[in-house]
Amino acid sequence: MTAQPTLSRRDFLKTAGVGAAAVTATCVLGSQASPALASGPASENGWAMLIDTTRCTGCQSCALACKEVKSRPNPTVEPTALSSEAYTFIDLRPQADSEATINVKRQCMHCQHPACVSACTVGALRKTADGPVTYDDKKCIGCRYCQYACPFGVPTYDWNNPLGLIHKCDLCVQRLAEGERPACVASCPAGALHFGRRTDMIAQARARIRSNQRRYVDKVYGEHEAGGTSMLYLSGVPFSQLGLPELGEQTISHQAEAVMAKTPLVAASVATLATGLYWLLKRRDLKLNEAQVTLPQEDSHGH
Questions:
Q1: Tell me: the pLDDT tens digits for 220-278?
Q2: CATH 3.30.70.20 fits 42-249, yes or no
Q3: For residue 124, what are the β-bridge partners?
């Protein structure tokens, strides 16, 4: 048996380097081309919604109106969580010292500096200059990075769809383009939802707090949290009781951008290790084959 050539150290490094370079180039070009990482901040005075939890009756009119407008399945069934079937719902939060509940509307927060947009590698999520965070299912690859990045746990994944699409509220961007309010706001019978420019909604919230200090906590949730959101909350109890996360003023998106910026380096490192391991194992097998070579057997004439 003819011994097969072994891989020299020089060839090993060369092969590993080529594999790493190819992966690095692909990742770097992909990240540079991603409109998600290149998108700028939204206008500080885009559209916003003021949610007064002290006025919400929990009727779910907003959630059912959203289902109808967005053509979601089971349009008459009141949702109990965000899902591919429901982009908003009323979360019934029990009070600490009472059998009553606090009604808290949940939906995408439409952050001023959305982490989901920064984490999206293909630009399927985009923060528009007027406020809404929109989603393009034609660009989505189903990586679910947006789910991991969102501090509010908003994007949901449709496991029943072979395309693996993400679902979330888009602030009724089509209705806004036609001069209409979001469906949830238009359907609220209790006056718990108000819609307008962000500065106006913040001013209105602060005016309500000043005029009725016993009714409200002296804080507008979403004004500064995670760099600010387009959904603003008023409450009569600490916001931690509403299930809203306690966040600082620093944006979350910078963390996602840092991770995505390091992705090419990590991918290249993994490629280098994987390529090197492959050739080391192949070299070991070649040596084992050489050691197992037997002497030529004698022919029929005894030679």
A1: 999 999 999 999 999 999 999 999 999 988 887 655 555 555 444 444 444 455 555 55
A2: yes
A3: none
